[in-house]
Amino acid sequence: MCPMESLDEKPKRRTFKGLAPEERQRERHERFMEAGLALYGTRGYHGVTVKELCAEAKLTERYFYESFKDREALFGAVYQRQVEQLRERVLAVIRRHLPDPRAMARAGLETFFQGLREDPRCARILFVDVLSISPAMTEQSRQVTSGLSGFLLQFTQALYPQLRAQGLDPEIVATGLVGACINVAMHWVYGGFAQPVEAVRDNCYALFEAMILTWSVKTSKPG
Amino acid sequence: MCPMESLDEKPKRRTFKGLAPEERQRERHERFMEAGLALYGTRGYHGVTVKELCAEAKLTERYFYESFKDREALFGAVYQRQVEQLRERVLAVIRRHLPDPRAMARAGLETFFQGLREDPRCARILFVDVLSISPAMTEQSRQVTSGLSGFLLQFTQALYPQLRAQGLDPEIVATGLVGACINVAMHWVYGGFAQPVEAVRDNCYALFEAMILTWSVKTSKPG
DNA sequence: TACTTCTGACAATGCTTCATGTCAACATGT
DNA sequence: ACATGTTGACATGAAGCATTGTCAGAAGTA
Lengths: 223, 223
Hints:
The structure is a homodimer. The first copy, chain A, contains 9 helices and no strands. Chain A is mainly alpha-helical. In chain A, helix 1 (21-43) packs across helix 2. Chain A binds chain B through residues 44-46, 128-129, 131-132, 138, 142, 145-146, 165, 167-169, 172-173, 175-184, 186-187, 190, 195, 199-200, 202-204, 206-207, 209-211, 213-214, 217, and chain B through 44-46, 128-129, 131-132, 138, 142, 145-146, 165, 167-169, 172-173, 175-184, 186-187, 190, 195, 199-200, 202-204, 206-207, 209-211, 213-214, 217. Chain A binds a DNA duplex through residues 11-17, 21, 24, 49-51, 59-65, 70-71.
């Protein structure tokens, strides 16, 4: 009985199982992120409940709402992480193949596809469910893919500054090429990786190269 | 009081409001189909309840379950109808432009995009929600897009029988081209049709042409 | 008019989910 | 050993949903 006891005293946070409070919380957060990847990535967003996420994370609802506002917030966090992981990986590989544009593009594509094969769960998260959750998530996805085609655009224009598409809108073409990769990836993943990754990489690269070639031809001999 | 009254007598079906029983049922079915298109196409599959579908159709739950086993069955029917409508329209236009392959492809593409602009609701149904409902619906969508790339393949190979893709898998390329059109369409629709339909059509056609050109080049002068 | 079918409004059931709350058991530092 | 922070199991409540059922009245038939 301490005499100066305040009425709204904060509980003293302390270590537990050898971990500081922040560490424990981060670990719980992490477990939910992995549970989200596991369940959302296999059964989709709408088929998964908070209770199931908790069971997968071996934690209880209380801690779920400690880390995330709701189911959608967890999905958004998982989505964003997957995007950034894949992006970093692809960019790193592209950098490693500087300055050969052909090698850069092919290696980037291969890394993209290999990432999906290593963890097919992220394919569903990145390309399917994100579009059917809420307008906010749809917009987030739109920005990601727009950013991707923007990068693609910048990339090709830096490599081939002389390219001027006659009557073509580079933004639309870039959107198309991104869509091509995504659709190929989806069919590849859902088809059980029937083709070797090199085949997928080469065929997608062929689309890129075809466009560059077309642009060169159109610009070098107009009409 | 008829003396021979059977215990399990079937109710005599009769006309009502000048319509035969079958006509009435068909009309109810139709109203649910339109309600499904309206609500699924704007708010998505998961955000719509049976009650809302009934309100939109101005009918009651009883009649919903008369026509459809559940919400998913209605979605499947709406999806299938939209696929077939768009396909018929595109095929009709393509036929009308025989035998000029360039005109056929461009007109087909334009009809595809124009169909989406006339009724943006079907974009969501055809490309987004169908993938996140159930494995069965996902498979149905897969078959549709596979059929589409199959047609594309057959089309180009019929027009350019000499084309032999060196080291390329025509199936993957076709999948990519279909994905390109779908992604361009999605961004076009969700971006509020910022570009004129001719621009979208021409840029997608450019992708097609680029591939054909690439194949021709690769086959005529190998290496 | 008398009878039957058809229709719409809505109640009822049973289930599931989200989100919060309770509480005893456990772990820790003193 | 004790007081207290921490945890997991479970309870609770409000809400929403799918599906079936009830019933009075409108619309057709004879």
